[in-house]
Amino acid sequence: QVQLVESGGGLVQAGGSLRLSCAYSGRTFGYDIGWFRQAPGKGREFVGGTTWSSETPYYADSVKGRFAISRDKAKNTDYLQLNSLKPEDTAVYYCNILQYWGKGTPVNVSS
Q1: Closest Cα partner for 94 from 2, 3, 4, 31?
Q2: Are strands 18-26 and 44-50 parallel, antiparallel or unpaired?
Q3: Cα separation of 99 and 101, whole Å?
C-alpha cells in the first residue's frame, strides 16, 4: 500500500512561482515517482518524474526549463518547483506511484 499527499498549490499571478510537495509513505522503494496535472475539462497530463535509482528527473516538453523536480529522501518527499507560470498551467497537480494517486493540489494562474 502507498499513500501520497500533495500540498503547496494556490493562486499565483502569471510569471510567478510555487513549490508543490508530495509526501509519500508505504512500499515506495524502487519505484519512479511521477507528477501529472489535470486542467478543467481536460484529461490528465504527464508533467515530469524522477527515477528511484538515479534520482534523475525527466519532464514533458511543455514544462521543460520552467519546472524542476527534487527529492528529500530523509522526509520521503518530492518537490515540484513551478517557475515562470502561465495561465495554461492552471490545473490540479497530482503525484503518482504505480497505480496510486494523491488527491491533488490545485494551482490557479491568473493573467
Answers
A1: 4
A2: unpaired
A3: 7
